[in-house]
Structures are given as C-alpha cells and as structure tokens.
Amino acid sequence: MKSGEHFSLFETTRVRGWFIRRVFSISMFVAICFIWLFRLSHKGHPYWPCLALFAAEIWFGFSWLFSQSLRWNLIFRKTFKTRLSQRYEDKSLPSVDIFVCTADPDIEPPIMVINTVLSVMCYDYPAEKISVYLSDDAASDITFYALLEASTFAKHWLPFCKRFNVQPTSPAAYFNTLHHSKPYPQNLELVKKLYEDMKIRIEDAAKLGRVAKEIRSNNHRFSQWDSYSSRRDHDTILQILLHKNDKHNSKDVDGFILPTLVYLAREKRPQYHHNFKAGAMNALIRVSSNISNAKVILNVDCDMYSNNSQSVRDILCFFMDDEKGHEIAYVQYPQNFQNLTKNDLYGNAMFIPSEVELHGADGYGGPLYIGTCCFHRRDALSGKKYDSGYRIDWKNEIDHAIESNLQELEEKSKALARCTYEENTLWGKKMGLRYGCLVEDVITGLSIQSQGWKSVYYNPMRKGFLGVAPTTLLQILVQHKRWSEGHFQIMFSNYSPLWHAPGTIKLGLRMGYLHFNSWATTSLPILCYSIIPSLYLLNGIPLFPKICSLWFIPFAYVILGESIYSLVEFLIFGGTIQGWWNDLRMWLYKGTSSYLFAFIDNIFKFFGLSDSPFTITTKIMDEDVSQRYEKEVMEFGASSPLFTILATLALFNLFCLLSTLKDLLVLGENGFRDYEEMVLQILLCGFLVLINFPIYQGLFLRKDKGRLPSSLVIKSTTLALSACIISKIFI
Ligand SMILES: O=c1ccn([C@@H]2O[C@H](COP(=O)(O)OP(=O)(O)O[C@H]3O[C@H](CO)[C@@H](O)[C@H](O)[C@H]3O)[C@@H](O)[C@H]2O)c(=O)[nH]1
Ligand SMILES: [Mn+2]
C-alpha cells in the first residue's frame, strides 16, 4: 500500500490475469498479420473479390485492435463510505441535483417516470440536500399530474423507505420483489394501497388522454396549460412542487423535510431547434443553478430507477477524495436492466461494454459518458476547463430560495428555459451538453475529457440503476442505428479522437473511442464477409487457403481463438452459452442493418440530404409481444427495410448452402476433393445459415403476429434468388 492511500476514499485495483490476456492478444495480432500477408502474397485468386476480402480483413484487424485497447488495462473501483462519514458530517456534505428526462407519455408511461423520480428522492442522504428535476419534453399535463400525485405519495413513501430500509426505492420494483422477501414490514399494506390507488388514477388519466376536468379545476397549477398549443409549441412550464421554504407543503407525514421537487417543460417553438435530450439537459442545468445549484448533478433517463440507496455516498467518495477527487468530472455507472430474460435474445445486457470495455476505458482515465446513470461535477458539465490548482469548497452553497419567495423563484427560473436564451451563447458548443450529435452524451463526455478532466467508472455489486431494455428486434435495430450514426458523427466532428486535443487524451483511450465510433463503418466488412464467400461458394470458386495449407492455420487460429475467448469472457460475466450465441447474432444483425443504414444516412447528411431525428425508444409493450419476449421468441411483426436486408442475406446464404450440399451429394467423392479448397467458405456459409435460424422461422414457420409479414417473404426471396441467378450468369 502506498503512503497516503490508507486515507483515500476509494481504491483502484487491476484485473487479475492481465498478463495471460496480453500474451493472447499479441498472438492473435500475429495471426491477423499472417492473414494480411496471405492476401498480399496470393494474387492468383479472382482479383476483385479477394481485394474486397482483403480490405475487410484489414478493417476487421483494426477494429479488433481498437477493441483490444479496451481490454489492455482493466481497472476496478471500490469506495470507503465509512471514511467519508468519519470525515464529513451529514450537514457538511454537498447538495445533489438529480435530473430525470422524459419526452413522450405514450411510450414512456407517467407511472414509470414517477417511479424513477420517487426512487431517486429516497437516497440515503439528507433530504434537504436533494433536489429532483423532471424535464418533460412533451409538456404533458398527464405527466405533470402524475408528478403531482407522486409529490403527495412521497410523504408516505419516504418515511416508509427510511424506517424499513427499503431497497429498491422505486415503489413498483419494490412491490414486485415482495413475494420473495417475507415477513412484510408493518404499514406495508397501507403504503401499498396508497400506491395502487395512485397508479389507477394516473393510468386512468393516461387512458383518457387528458387530466379530468375536476382535477384540473381544483388545482391552479394546471392553468399553465391554458396557453399550450402542442408539444412543439408552448411556453415554459415550471413548477416547484416541493421545497423546504414552502411552509404548507414541504414535510413528510413524520414531519421531516422532503427533497425539492421541480417540474420543467422548457419552452418549445417550431422555429427553434430543440436539440432533443441535450437541449433538455441544458435547460435543466440552468434552471437548477437558479433553484438549488448543487455542485453534483445526477442524470438518469426516465426508465432508470435507483436500485441502490447508497449511490450518492459512493460517488462522493470519488469527488471528495483529497488526492484525486479534484480531477474527476463525472462518475459513470453501468446501464443495467430490469427486464432481461435468461438468454438475453437481443443482447440487451451489453455485458461486454459494461463489464469489460468501460473498465478498460477507466484504465486510461476516461470511461465514456453514456447519457444516464451518471454523476457530474456541475462545473465540468457547464464547460469549465480542468485546472490542477482548482479545489471546490464543498460546503459553500448559495441558497437562492432564501432570497426570493417561491413564486418569484419560479418566474426567474422560467426565463432560463426559453428558446431564445441560448442565442449567441456557448450553450451546446462549449457549455453543457453538446448539440448536433445523435449521441450527445458520448460527445459531451469526450469534450469534457479533452478539457483535461478525468472520469471514473463505478460498477458495484449491487447495481446502481435498473432500466427498461427494448423488447423487439426493430426497436433495438433502430436504437443502434441512432447510436452508431451518432458515434460516426463523432469521428468526423471537432472532437474526433483521431486528431482532437493532442496530448490530453491518451492513445489507448482514443483507440477505445474509435472502437465505438467506427461501428457504422464495420457494416461494410461484415457485409463483404456475409456475401462474397458464399457467392463464390455457389460458383465453386475458392477464396481462402486449402485446409492442408499452412496458410490455413492463421485463419483457424483467429476464428477459434476469438470464438473461444469471447465465449469465456461472456460466461465469466454471468452469461449463458445460448446468450453468447444470441449476442453474436445481434452483432451480425446490427452490423448488416443498423450500422449500414447509419453509414448511408451519414453520407446523405454529409451532402446535406437528410437529418436523422432522435427516435425515442418505446418502454412499453402489449401483452402478446410481452409473452413472446418472455419466451425468447424473436419479434419481427413489422415491415422495415432493416428486416428486408436481414431476410435477404439469410435466404441468400441458405440458397448458397443448399446448392453446395446438392452438388456435394451429386458429385460424391470427387466433389469432396473439389470442395476441399472451400472448407472455410462452407463453414462460413453454414455458420450464417445456423445463426439465421430465427429469420427462417419468422419467414416460413411461424403463424403468430410477431412473424415477418408475407410481403417481406416475397420481396426477400425474390432478391436473394435473383442475386444467386445473376451471379451464376456473370461469375
Ligand atoms: O427529445 C428528447 C428525446 C429523448 N429524451 C430523453 O432521453 C432519454 C433517452 O432516450 P431513449 O429513447 O430511452 O434512448 P436510449 O437509446 O435508451 O438512450 C441512450 O442513448 C442516448 C443517446 O443516443 C442517451 O441520451 C441516453 O441517455 C442513453 O440511455 C429518455 O429519458 C428520453 O425521455 C428527451 O428528454 N428529449
Ligand atoms: Mn432508454
């Protein structure tokens, strides 16, 4: 132990077995070089297809190299909360502002949103130091009504959580766990009934599509909706629902102060671009600076409830550490999910990014900011540059509310959320979240790091947050299209890890960023590998070394090595074999559809031909879909160009394989000798057919609503068959 480390509020350890890992990495790299060498030295094969495969192999090689940088130096963090409490009394701990973002009550149900809000109100932390802000980009009176209800329910829920040390503090999630943990705490029935009644009222309003007249007329707060004309056209609506200075409405049933609770719908006008979530976050940063101005900001999406009531104390161990705390701009938690199934059909768990890659980025001092479950230092988020001499005085807080009464405070704060406020300012450029990128979070994190700040990844045993993972294939593909498109934008933005801020960001971390940034471009090599080898197999032309040639070894080593390695990595983090297979399939599907479309859209955007919006991910599903999700049956159910590509590729490979098998049977022993040169092509084609099984089922075998529509069956069969026939003519 180094001197001084004893007093540190957190500890950093290195992963075990890193040496073996590195040796393996190097051996893989050598094999990859041999593959490149094979292509360079064998010009006899058909020229163009081999050139394309070579290009693909070069690209795969680089992309593998980027992924290695995220595995080179994994680190893990541990906090010492008792040391924190020994050093700081509760009353001298800093305040925390918590931002929850929602944008559409139809696909982000208000009841889910307030569960998230309630969960973060219940941190094991002095309530008067917590302020929760809900940003509603839909300015929905139903969401507001739900929050109003939540502010009343909180008066029972918070004392209940405190008294019985309830975990998780989201009421819905807690009541769901109850059948496992007996005996029930006292008062449970009462609180549960209050919750259920509230839930019915909120869901009734949601079903009705508006808040009932009686409720509206009984509460003057709804009058702010009088001037509302549409989601995209309304004034700022800002309401402080709970505040310690409000004499009539600030305490729970036990007489203790409640956290501050604020509803904000920033102004929207059709002629002003609202910049999606980044715009909402920036309005929140400003408004909160006027109301509570905490130095630490937590940001969660509306579906990510807090699953660990200690999180605030945990992250303060980083920010308040004497030695290293002042360098840290944000502490990122992993994004975990509550609704995963056993084998994770859609690879939702994102084991590898959460359990490996972000730890690897942390090793270089810079996990990415992934938009949710992240604690920020307000100064860094607001654009302040890192300065090694700068120390925060955690105890010195300005309480705006004391200066003015709440109504005045509301009015003053409203002005900060106006559309025109940001005109001619650095907001969205150098202050707050950066605009113009579909992954506003990642580019913001990168820009913060390029100002000299570090970040920390904290992934404790008890998960900090749990959210709702998408449950249909289309949702995931669309989500990943947005992500990969955004990442691609970063590569060519002012903050590109290729060239921006030399000297500030380490090479390893740059490569790590490039691993994510280059998702969209990986679509091209994946497509090459899914089409060319099978196409030439169909025509009996070999593109890879013979099985008896020495050149076969590097191919075999890379394929087997990478498969076994990724399987072991997956199993170590609690996945199943089936789950690994599913994850591999999703990599392929994302690669050939989401990433491809993201790539194409980026090119269109470059020529000014299109501009992709932020498509919000649905957080609800109907009964039918939900049942199939539970059974891990792939959900198609819609017609989408993304599916057309997937189905066409699947069928195309099936036709190629069938035709080859037929030839093998007809030719007998001679045939086997011919095909000896094509073992890799047959294996690759066979692998593609095997992994595409859910698509064949969706096309031909299933009868339920989640199957692929018949129009798509016709379209993709025609396309795949034509590709086979045309190739027979031209090759
Ligand atoms: O105009 C908008 C659009 C979205 N949101 C909110 O942003 C959050 C994330 O949206 P979601 O549709 O759930 O996207 P995901 O793909 O799940 O989001 C991940 O990726 C995004 C970047 O693409 C990040 O912003 C998110 O924090 C991160 O969880 C949600 O709470 C939305 O309500 C807004 O507030 N305003
Ligand atoms: Mn989400």
Automatic annotation (TrEMBL):
Top-level taxon in the UniProt lineage: Eukaryota
Gene Ontology BP terms: cell wall organization; cellulose biosynthetic process
Gene Ontology molecular function terms on file: cellulose synthase (UDP-forming) activity
Transmembrane segments: 20-40, 46-67, 516-538, 550-577, 636-660, 680-700
Gene3D superfamilies: Spore Coat Polysaccharide Biosynthesis Protein SpsA, Chain A
Binding residue positions for Mn(2+): 277, 301
Compartment(s) of residence: Golgi apparatus membrane
UniProtKB keywords: Cell wall biogenesis/degradation, Glycosyltransferase, Golgi apparatus, Membrane, Transferase, Transmembrane, Transmembrane helix
InterPro entries listed in its UniProt record: Cellulose_synth, Nucleotide-diphossugar_trans
Pfam families linked to this entry: Cellulose_synt (PF03552)
Protein residues bound to UDP-alpha-D-glucose: 108, 137
Recorded topology in the membrane: Multi-pass membrane protein
Residues at the catalytic site: 137, 441
One GO CC annotation: Golgi membrane
PANTHER family reported for this sequence: X-BOX TRANSCRIPTION FACTOR-RELATED
Function text: Thought to be a Golgi-localized beta-glycan synthase that polymerize the backbones of noncellulosic polysaccharides (hemicelluloses) of plant cell wall.
Protein family: Belongs to the glycosyltransferase 2 family. Plant cellulose synthase-like E subfamily.
Name of the protein: Cellulose synthase-like protein E1
Species annotation: Lupinus angustifolius (Narrow-leaved blue lupine)
